């Protein structure tokens, strides 16, 4: 039951901490990508989505440009849904972003968002609710405010306005910070 509620209402990046918050222990096998039969169709779709999105963004985080790998295998890079799958977000490149693990989490938490950028592109929003004084918080997050998105590569459809608007109204926290000064 818990698994069904998680799948129907939240993106996978938030499942772990939600379980912790309510003192629920899901077995490792249940929280991993190969959980229960119910999600078989979804796993199939997710795999294609990941490949499409990572290729569209050339295996770089669209926010910071992170592109780590072990050998030939990307590590710490994920395909994020802009409009959550649990809220009818399609597994489509127009609804996807290639993000590093940190920025994926912050995007799903509403710390980071997407705004209209120059020439029909997108720029990065950072919520004023987010606070961090460390160099890591500054350089990893605050400095992104107002920066243009990295990618997608030419010829790939950018994020659809409807999905971006959904994220801004349903997930993003309050007011965006003004662009960080270069
Ligand atoms: Zn990143």
From TrEMBL:
InterPro entries: HNH_nuc (IPR003615), PT_DNA_restrict (IPR011396)
Pfam families hit by this protein: HNH_2
Domain HNH nuclease: start-end pairs: 61-113
CDD domains on file: HNHc (cd00085)
Protein name stated in the entry: HNH nuclease domain-containing protein
């Amino acid at each position: 039951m818990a698994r069904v509620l998680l799948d129907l209402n939240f993106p996978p990046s938030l499942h772990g901490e939600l379980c912790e918050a309510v003192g629920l222990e899901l077995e490792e096998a249940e929280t991993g990508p190969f959980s229960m039969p119910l999600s078989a169709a979804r796993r199939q779709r997710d795999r294609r989505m990941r490949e499409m999105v990572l290729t569209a963004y050339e295996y770089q985080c669209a926010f910071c440009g992170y592109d780590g790998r072990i050998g030939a295998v990307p590590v710490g890079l994920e395909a994020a849904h802009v409009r959550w799958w649990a809220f009818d977000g399609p597994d489509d490149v127009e609804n996807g972003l290639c993000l590093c693990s940190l920025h994926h989490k912050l995007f799903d938490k509403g710390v980071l968002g997407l705004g209209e950028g120059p020439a029909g592109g997108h720029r990065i929003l950072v919520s004023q609710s987010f606070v961090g004084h460390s160099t890591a918080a500054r350089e990893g997050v605050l400095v992104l405010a107002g920066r243009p998105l990295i990618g997608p590569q030419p010829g790939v459809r950018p994020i659809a306005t409807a999905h971006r608007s959904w994220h801004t109204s349903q997930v993003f926290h309050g007011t965006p910070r003004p662009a960080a000064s270069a």
